[in-house]
Amino acid sequence: MAGHDHDHDHDHHHEHGSELSETQLRVRALETILTEKGYVDPAALDAIIEAYETKIGPRNGAVVVAKAWTDPAYKQALLDDASKAVASLGHMSRVGDHLVAVENTPQRHNMIVCTLCSCYPWEVLGLPPVWYKSAPYRSRAVKDPRGVLADFGIDLPKETEVRVWDSTAETRFLVLPMRPAGTEGWSEERLADLVTRDSMIGAGLAKKPEELAR
Asked: Is residue 155 in a domain?
């Protein structure tokens, strides 16, 4: 496993296990009050959060991946210095973390985790999914990464190495998934539609062209 100094001191609050930070408790209490008074519709709130978690937020990362798939020079720049390459497209990090891009190949599959908390590249992936912050994922991703991938429906060839990268408050990771076959000549915009949030975490693969119609 790479990327985590287990003695580092996180400079922001995180949830450990099922515990909630003071800020999270206050947010939950406020949400409850607003809901009880009829100011907030829980279903609508959930829909907004889901949109930012799965669609709006990850679109930044999808644009980055699509450009890397079509532009060899940009791909190399991304692998050399992801923070700089992402910033060149206007997606600036607001938390000052150092972003590292790792490329999936037939020989190696990369997966991202934060074993101590939930460090996550918000600027390119939006809101972190609940499962990413859960204790079972954080522990199993290290001990049994192939088992976790199987739970997500990914069955890799035995010869493919699985490498787990451990995020920290200082260094976050972005997986560059493999470009699906049958996409030769596609525009960057169309390719971006194939890139999923989970594929940029390593817990999923990019969509196949035939999946876009579903």
From this structure: yes
The structure tokens 């990362």 sit at 61
Residue 119 among the catalytic residues: yes
Q: Which of 83, 118, 167, 199 is catalytic?
A: 118
List, in order, residues 6 or more apart from 194 with CB less than 8 Å away: 66, 180, 183, 206, 207, 208, 209, 211, 212
Q: Which of 13-27, 157-171, 197-211 has the lowest mean pLDDT?
A: 13-27
Active-site residue flag, 114: yes
Q: Exactly one of 114, 134, 167, 187 is catalytic; which is it? A: 114
pTM of the model: 0.75
Structurally, the chain folds into a number of domains equal to 1
Between 37 and 140, name the one with better pLDDT: 140
Residue 68, domain CATH = 3.90.330.10
Catalytic residue among 88, 93, 117, 134: 117
Q: Please report whether residue 6 resides in a domain.
A: no
| Contacts (Cβ under 8 Å, ≥6 apart) of 165 | 1, 2, 3, 100, 102, 110, 111, 112, 113, 173
